[in-house]
Amino acid sequence: MNAGPSLAARLAAVRAALALAVGQRLDPVTAPAPTDDGLDGVVRAAGLTPFERDVLVLAAGCELDPGIAALCAAAHGDPGRRFPTLGLALRVLDQPHWDAVLPDGPLRGLALVDLDPGGLLDVRLRVEESVMLAVVGLDPVDQRLAEFADPRAAASVRAVTGSPAADTDSTWDSEPDAGPGVTAGELLPDAHRELLEEAAVRWSGGALALRGAQHADRVAFVRALAARLGARRWWHLRDLPVDSLERQGLARRLVREERLTGAPVVLEIDDLGDTGLRFAARLADTGARVVWSSASPRPHLPAPRCAVDLPPRTLAENVELWRAALGPRAAGLGRQVERLAGQFRLPVDDLQEAAGLVGDAVGDAVGGEAAGSPRPCGQPGGRTTRGSVGAELWTECRRRARTGLVGLAERVEPAATWDALVLPDRERAQVADVLRHARHRATVHERWGVGRTGGVSALFAGPSGTGKSFAAEVVARELGVDLYRVDLGGVLSKYIGETERHLSRLFDAAEAGGALLLIDEADALFGKRSEVRDSHDRYANIEVSHLLQLMDAYRGVAVLTTNLRGNLDDAFLRRLGFVISFPFPSARERRLLWEQAFGPAVPVGDLDPVRMAQLTLNGGSIRNVAVHACFLAAERGGPVQMADVLAGARVEYAKLDQPLTPGELAGWAA
């Protein structure tokens, strides 16, 4: 292909100007022709003057046309200087002006050209590869930008109940496969789609403050907004250079990208410190389209040009997203679609991919059940039914929801069962209430509109070893959700604002799967809130208030544990849905704990649970004693005997620095 008329003409004009300057007669052009002409678009987007346009052509021409490089060497009078300079450009090109060399002018301010260190007029004038490729009509990804930012594809929006709102070509990068019945494009809830149309009209540049509790919804909105604005991609800034000069260079390249391609720049300002916030503000001051993405409004930033507050997806909207992703096969899952929608708020990409993975199985299940002959499902002798397909989809959603929580909390595989939970009747009924509220939260709060729309919050209070963590495992297992243990030591920070950011990131990530969050030793953060005597007291109270707000809005189950209920603030306790006390186990409860202390595979002798219950131990200590007894039996090569249990008890009591009383030893063999 030949170069377009603009680039070809300007290359010829620059070549002629150089030849005239050195008194040479031009030879026929034999340089390889570029594929397409993007010069006019670059000139318009950057607002270049004719002289600035020709300076850019001169710098690019040395790479595109060896004849121009040779003419530059002749103009310098040095065969080794086969490159342009600003001084040479001012001397030989038409309509020169000194404004073109200013650092904040479009040539240098947008990093269309760079200068070698050590001077201004007589040093090498360079053009970056991505700029040169843009000049010849290509759409390259700037690899220097990719060191700190990720280029992500735009996607035309598709309303879940209508036709696409935009048909912008989004083939710049491959999008995840859509589920059955979904055309290529972004699925957005109707409320988000309306906000998208408003933002596309109102936002012409500067900062757009995009706020929403769910990070996945913000990403989907930006992806659709970029396409709605005609961009093929957007840049997600993931890191900032440490060096201030490198940050300036990054800012120039981001603004250049936005000017040339329309690609917005997205900064997750919840993750930025003071330096990052200043960078975000200065970047927006350039007039480039910059998105400040956050869960809630952030202080210390100027007023944005435009603000969008994304409401959380409602249950009805999430149901429609699932039905749109599954297409006609949604009918095969029946009410399970609503159960999935009530539990999971997956990113749209994950939702569509999960629907696609099990799509064929849904069809097989429906067809098989209708014919009365269910088909095999993965394992020999297995059967594909609506229930089994729904369980597979549930498991797949749990797996995908875990991604965002990696590194934020410890995942615990819940193995405890309801039958193994030993508590007094009243406390056991309270745990059952927690389960009931969690199971039907979506129906009562969202479908019926009764009560607040958050999830279930509970405090499990009692001495160590009384079953608080065990009960949390039971709840997670019964609900079929993941359990994450949160270490408050890793969340609390001495730096102002860091604790809130850590907590927001944790709850935001957990929202996708509605995981059960188990926050141990809650009194470390939720102790008696002090009167404000200094800035530390004030910020400590802010941290508590922030977590209470997160818990109120969280759709899943948040369980906090404490050994010292009396240390907790009464105002905090009133904000919780349940406060359950875990008492020291009675003799009856200790007997039940001993009866299940040894698993079915453990060989046991003539054990007496009633006598073992004389030991005043809690559930955690009983497990420790049982484990020690098993090791003694394994060493001896026989079954667990009462003597092994007594030996284990002596070890446990010594660890607790407590004596075994005569009453506890009554009836035991010496």
Automatic annotation (TrEMBL):
Residues 454-582 form the AAA+ ATPase domain. Pfam families: AAA (PF00004), WHD (PF22977). InterPro entries: AAA+_ATPase, ATPase_AAA_core, P-loop_NTPase, WHD. Residues 159-185, 368-388 are annotated as: Disordered. GO terms for molecular function: ATP binding; ATP hydrolysis activity. This is AAA+ ATPase domain-containing protein. The lineage of its organism: Bacteria, Bacillati, Actinomycetota, Actinomycetes, Kineosporiales.
